[in-house]
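#data-curation
PF: Archiving a pair of folding outputs for the training set. Convention for this channel: one message per protein, sequence first, structure tokens after, nothing in between. First:
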Amino acid sequence: MSSSPLPTKLVAIWDELYETTAHLHRLVDTLDEWLWGRSPTVGKWSVARCIEHLNLTSRAYLPLFRTAFKDARAQGLLATNPSFRLDFWGWLIFKSVEPSCRFRMKTPDAFVPPTIEPKDKVVGEYDTLQRELVAVLEEAADLDLGKITIASPFNASVKYSAYSA
């Protein structure tokens, strides 16, 4: 749990970021490079591609968050009565990434890892990006994330709240 004075909903996200990092290490730390890059079946992504996809996604979101939070702070969008509710797009994204999802969306080419990089490099970057996400979350704890809108890095015509993102 965070030592920062985060609202309960943000503490849950903070905890999830740390738990997913720990879970990733439990899964990949025992893999050799061959298993790391091996696809389970034709058309399915290897562990390497999945983690690199997460890295590509984090690299796309971090500057969006930083810019949106800077602008929100300048506009005074402080969290006096914050909204911690998924908007439509946030709900749809959340449902689409659940394990029990009944539909899949095609990953845009920009977020499909083109190569399989060495495990240590990709996992190290994942760890760094997770720490950056936590730092950005902590820095934005006093903002109303439900009122801050960002454009999806996957499709610029889709806009949703920073909380949903």
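PF: Second:
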Amino acid sequence: MTANTAPVCVLTGDIVRSGALSAETLDRVMAGIEAFSSVVAAWPGSPDVREERFRGDGWQLYLGAPRWTLRAALGLRAAIRSRHPSVETRLAAAFGPARLGARLAASSGAAFEASGRALEGLGTHRLWRFGGGLGSVALDDLADGLFAVCDRCSQGWTGRQAEVFGRLAVPDAPAMIDVAAALEVAPQTVHAHFERADGHALLDAVARFEAAVDSVVPGPSVE
């Protein structure tokens, strides 16, 4: 096993009402989550990103750089919703040390345990939760509240809003005019979708979260 002595992030989730989906649709959704993990792996300063499906409709995403956690959560929702507008996933994130096995299912440590507990503790009124690891109860509670608000703001995305937000939410994002060209629509259309997706507020929340994580979580360290 590889032991990470600095905190990492583990996101654990499952597809909501997966029993109502065909096996083919569920497989496409899970393949989309796997493809999104490759996108995150290309973000600056991502030392290690891994994704794994388990129990049919469950998944885990391991991030060696915890600062990207909230951005990845929003990006994951955008990736799913832009392709499957009626599909949703529950999600719980937690920071902590971890010991990586050959597979995520064979891994262990506080990040895996806290993420799993947080997912199990989700109620019926929200889909996302932050399970802790920022070093104090106060910071963990603030982060959990931020996750709840970002979850609520993004639950109502249409497929097009999700696609636009996903393209503009990556680090070093392209300009809106370039996104418009890629989507073959007017820049005003991209701006309208981004506004309706609460894009500015969500990215402001992401920036504040990342600044807070950078101030309290040391960089990756592997033994």
